[in-house]
Amino acid sequence: MALCVRDTVGIDLHATELHRALAVAVDQFAIAGSAEYCAERLQQIVDLGISRIYIGTRAVGVDLAEQNTERIGREVLPLVRARSSA
After folding, report:
1. 71 CB contacts (<8 Å, ≥6 apart)?
2. Which of 37, 44, 35 is nearest to 74 (CA)?
3. Which of 6, 25, 58, 72 could be bridged to 76 by S-S, CB 3.0 to 4.6 A?
4. Mind listing the pLDDT tens digit for each residue in 12-48?
5. What's CA 3's distance to the chain center, in Å?
6. Do 55 and 72 contact (CB within 8 A), yes or no?
7. Which parts of the chain fold into alpha helices (H)?
8. pLDDT, position 2
C-alpha cells in the first residue's frame, strides 16, 4: 500500500512521486548533496563561463552559526579549485 500525501499537502501524489518531484525541484533550484556532488555541480556552472557565484546557506532561522558556510569552504571549494586548475 503506497502512502498518499493528499491530506497533508493538498496534492494527490503518492510518496514515491512526491519524492521524485522534490528531487527534481532541488536539482533545478539548489545544489545539495555530498561535497563531491556539490563541487561537480558548481564546476558545471564555472564551465558555462560564470565567474561569480553566490552561495547562500542562511535562511530564516537556518544555519545562523554558519556551519554549512564553513563546511562549503573546507570541503567543497577546494574540490572546485582542484577541478578548475586541472
Report:
1. 35
2. 35
3. 72
4. 556 777 778 888 887 888 888 899 999 999 999 999 9
5. 26
6. yes
7. 6-9, 15-29, 35-47, 67-71, 77-85
8. 42
DSSP 8-state secondary structure symbol assigned to residue 24:
H
**Three cell numbers, residue 71:** 563546511
2: Cβ–Cβ under 8 A, 6 or more apart, which residues?
14, 15, 16
Q: Could you tell me where the beta strands, DSSP code E, fall in 1-86?
A: none
Which is nearest to 57 in space by CA: 72, 69, 74?
69
Q: Are 13 and 6 in contact (CB under 8 A)?
A: yes
Q: Where are the domains of the chain?
A: 1-30, 32-86
From CA 46, how far away is CA 84, in angstroms rounded? 8
**CA–CA dist 31, 39 (Å, integer):** 9
| Model pTM score | 0.67
